[in-house]
Amino acid sequence: MPISPTTFEYSHDAATGVATLTLNRPERLNALTFEVYEELRSTFVALSSEPGVRAVILTGAGRGFCSGGDVESIIGRLLDRDYPSLLAFTRLTGALVLAIRRCGRPVVAALNGLTAGAGAVIAAACDVRIAAESARIAFLFTKVGLAGADMGAAWLLPRLIGLGRATELLLTGDFVEAREAERIGLYNRVVPAERVVEEARAWATRLAQGPSFALAMTKELLHREASMDLDSAIEAEAQLQAVCMREANFREAYEAFREKRPPAFR
Predict the structure, then answer these.
(1) C-beta of residue 137 within 8 angstroms of C-beta of residue 120
(2) pLDDT per position as a tens digit, 220-238
(3) Which end of the chain, N or C, is less packed with Cβ atoms under 10 Å?
(4) Rg for the chain (alpha carbons), in Å?
């Protein structure tokens, strides 16, 4: 079934294998609604098996990547809900992060501006973050009376920037400027605003040319090994690598080396 969301833009470049998801509420700095959460989650689930898709870009239209949950469309409507209804919503937001992490395709975030709240966690869930010089980021939850541990932020952020820095950002909710975010490892690259999507596309295209099964397995073990001891991690990697050695891409890399040409991975 073709991917055709109604709450954000979707495109697929068949020549490169790169799919692009663009949050498209620029007048609201791409604030999230219940519907956007649900469609993003289902889209990332579908992308894991979508034919021809080998890498994904996630970005936003206008001046911001994503400002988090929409104050009126989400936050205002949550105030009068009972606990089971609130829990259903918070589980939905977490399901989006799981869908991004479990997506079998590399996901590159192009952070073109303000990145806050849920938008910051979504960015952290992506595999690579390319940011504009204007891309300030904040995990704002404590600023609105919520725990800084939301949508998996307390799991994701320490693994990106270390426990001390993550604790600071999640307790204070303060904004971090782009160059500082790059310095502490939260952003992979910072580029001028007019180049951010171009740079993200270059990364996605490069990853799309790689061995798709091996990249998917790398993502899976990065996720699984967070809860393993070293012995278990080494055994998991041994089993997985033996599987990869039976894949056609392993032979293709060998033959390309012998023939002095770039490999043509499938």
Answers:
(1) yes
(2) 999 999 999 999 999 999 9
(3) N
(4) 19
Same-domain check for residues 147 and 66: yes
**Average of per-residue pLDDT across 32-38:** 97
Non-local (6+) Cβ contacts of 264 within 8 A are 252, 256
What count of other Cβ atoms lies within 10 Å of the Cβ of residue 251?
12
C-beta separation of 178 from 187 below 8 A = yes
Residue 96's domain comprises: 8-208
pLDDT digits (tens, 9 = 90+) for 167-177: 999 999 999 99
Domain co-membership, 14 together with 75: yes
Between 2 and 97, name the one with better pLDDT.
97
- Is residue 263 one of the residues assigned to a domain? no
Q: What share of the chain is helix, strand, coil (3-state, %, to 5)?
A: 55, 15, 30
**Secondary structure class of 194 (helix, strand, coil):** helix
Domain count, the chain: 2
CA pair distance 28, 63, nearest whole angstrom: 10
How far apart are the C-alpha atoms of 187 and 249, rounded to whole Å?
A: 30
- Backbone torsions φ then ψ of 138, nearest 5 degrees: -155, 140
CATH number at residue 33: 3.90.226.10
Please name the residues in contact with 114: beta carbons below 8 A apart, sequence gap of 6 or more: 29, 63, 64, 65, 66, 67, 135, 136
Identify whether 2 is part of a domain. Answer: no
203 lies in a domain?
A: yes
